[in-house]
Amino acid sequence: MSMTIESIGLVAGALVAALLVALITTPIVKNLAQKWGAVDVPKDGRRMHDHPIPRMGGLAIFLGFLLSVILFLPFLSGDGISLQIRGMLLGAVIIVVLGILDDIYALPALPKLIVQIVAAVIAVGSGNLVTVISNPNVFSSELYWELGWLSYPVTVVWIVGVTNAVNLIDGLDGLACGVSTISSMTMLVIALAMAEPEVAVLMAALAGACLGFLPYNMNPAKIFMGDTGSTFLGYVLGVVSIQGLFKYYMLISFVVPFLLLGLPIFDTCFAFIRRIAHGQSPMHADRSHIHHRLIDMGLSQKQAVAVLYIISAILGLSAVVLTTLSPVRAMLLLFALCVTGGVSVRIFLHNNSGQNHHDQPAKPAENDENKGDKES
Q1: How far apart are CA 86 and CA 191, in angstroms?
Q2: What are the respective helix, strand and coil percentages of the chain, to the nearest 5?
Q3: Long-range CB pairs of 150-156, under 8 A, 24+ apart, other chains included
């Protein structure tokens, strides 16, 4: 289906509707969180805040997304919402209920993982499947791999992995929400370029809901999204990336989803490798995520979040370029971006280390341990 003016209008309407719903319902959700005891109390060295702050704000994001999809997607589809999207929405409801319970009662990791797998299986059973992926070996004569029965476990692992990856970067005010906004807007642009109107509406609704919540979540945050929001965002991004990106039999189908979600995926993989290398469980919480490292380098929360936004935006731009230019031109641009980014980071680290050397803080370094990791 080609993108028409009507379709683009529906996409814009979905974004605005989700934004307004999230903007209006967030204060209501904040009062509910306080009433239900879903409050984040800084009681360990991983927290970045120094006073209790309500969480569960992701419920407002979910409401904005859900109402927008219900309002706008049937008009686009003609015969109602497809089975794939209904399966995704059902799984999303399960993820949000789990997140609310976790924000209130702090559930153990294993039961949460099991429920996440169930939600992923529901999405997979509704037809959201990675059936083929492009061959990462560019010198091979086989352009893509047929996964066969491996489609099911591979897709479940992908959805659960992205769900938890977004959850793990939820450590600074506005970080996970902003990164998810950038990822969803990037996927929206790609969906418009590839004439995928359903994916465009879904991503517009998600981006709008995030933008409506963001004013309350920016530093200093008035409310956290909690696991209710971070796992919901990861789940939807994981499922929709399957619908809109993995299905193309091109080189980019292997690369683009990893670029779109590059920051949370990299941080999660690095965290798991680091913990295993130290003889710890991969699920062991620590204070060595990428946002912690930026804070320890001397950046403020706002500066660290801005740096990570820029990284996500560069990765998103690379993903858009890969889908709109020839592979050779896209690879050249990616190489140039990597070189430029590497040089910039090198200069930044050098200047920052020099500044820290001359401007040592008055308080001991160990006092920084009251800064923390997770919002939720």
Answers
A1: 19
A2: 70, 5, 25
A3: 152/124, 154/130, 155/120, 155/123, 155/124, 155/128, 155/129, 155/130, 155/242, 156/117, 156/120, 156/121, 156/124
Per the CB < 8 A criterion, the answer to whether 166 and 226 are in contact is: no
Q: How far is CA 295 from CA 191, 307, 340, in A?
A: 35, 11, 23
Domain count, the chain: 1
Torsion of CA 257, 262, 265, 270, to 10 degrees: 140
pTM score, whole prediction = 0.81
The domain of 165 spans 5-370
- For the segment 149-182, what is each residue's pLDDT rounded down to a tens digit? 888 999 999 999 999 889 888 878 888 899 999 9
Residue 376 lies in a domain: no
Residue 322 lies in a domain: yes
**pLDDT tens-digit series, residues 226-257:** 999 999 999 999 999 887 655 554 445 556 66
Going by C-alpha positions, the residue among 277, 274, 305 that lies closest to residue 287 is: 274
